[in-house]
Amino acid sequence: MKRARGFTLIELMVAVALGLLTTLVIAQVFLQSEGNKRTTTSGSDAQVNGALALYALQRDIQMAGYGLSAMPAAVGCPTNAQNNGNTVLSSAPLVPVSITFGASGASDTLTVSYSQGSDYSVPIKVSVDHAKTDVSFTVPSTWGVANGDMLVAVPAAWEGSSTQWCTLFQATSSGSDSTTQIQNANTSVWNQALSFIMPATGYPAGSALLNLGSAPVRRVYSVNPGTWTLQGRELGAANGRDLFSQIVLLKALYGKAAVANGPVVRYDTVAPLNNADWRLVQSIRLLIVARSAQREDLNKTAVTPNALVWDVGPLAAVTGSVACNGSSKCVALDISPSDPTNWRHYRYKVFETVVPLRNTVWNQ
Fold first, then answer.
1. What percentage of the chain carries pLDDT values higher than 70?
2. What is the DSSP annotation of 284-317?
3. What is the spatial distance between Cα 305 and Cα 233, in angstroms, rounded to a whole number?
4. Which of 66, 120, 197, 319 could form a disulfide with 213 if both were Cys (CB 3.0 to 4.6 A apart)?
5. Do 246 and 312 fall within a single domain?
């Protein structure tokens, strides 16, 4: 009986204390490991989202101008269009890619246009004057034009004119002679308001019809500042759809040559004003900044202590660049709007590329 003794209170307290210390150490190791895993996972997600976003933009820009560039003289023509009475284009230039630059360092908006597939034809000459209220264009031949194709009427002398512009319409079937007439009757949702959006003088003989095929693409890319996602909006759609998350900045520059079809000598944010200016645009320089979804708080220390910069290299002139990193040049990037208070506690990945407008170059 004397040997049947249990633990004393002191021994129990020491055991409990050791157990708590061991649990604390294990918990700290687990939390650190879990934090590292979240950092790695969210960083990987940011890299994937950024790479896919850049690929999507690059793929579309490589196609830009397909079908449109078949008539270089029409590039830059102000274009009107309405879908079921709702204006979707109002004096928008007929160009492969246009950039709407964000104010004060905000994200830019890119608009990419091209014909899809192989069902488009070479430009067709208008044989007879087409009044704004007419329901068909008289042409030498309708070869290559099918019912439902989208066409753009291009006046012969739109450059510098305030009374002449281009109009988007849809070809419709009719009992008329299909070999010499292209119908634009208002049986299509695209033709409901043609008499209002066409020039008062219509399209005189000598104008041209540019066939964009049955499914032309006009896609608008932008960053939604509410959800920080890259969005794409299709032609005629009221709202964009989310494509890739955690994209906090989209920037673009026009790559311009000194002469048409020449090498790019500068990248800038100056919007082309006429056909000659648009034909100098040979490429688009892109930048995308993706953010990790994981907020880092390493002992209250910022993981991104300084503002990001875009290293554009030492060769071509770039608007807004300053000397940095020795002989290179950099453009400052403002990512603070993504989270004005905590943006320094996130990790970022910068993606960039230069995309040649090959369809424009080939058709100069």
1. 90
2. EEEEEEEE-SSPP-BTTB-SS-S--EEE--SSSE
3. 35
4. 120
5. yes
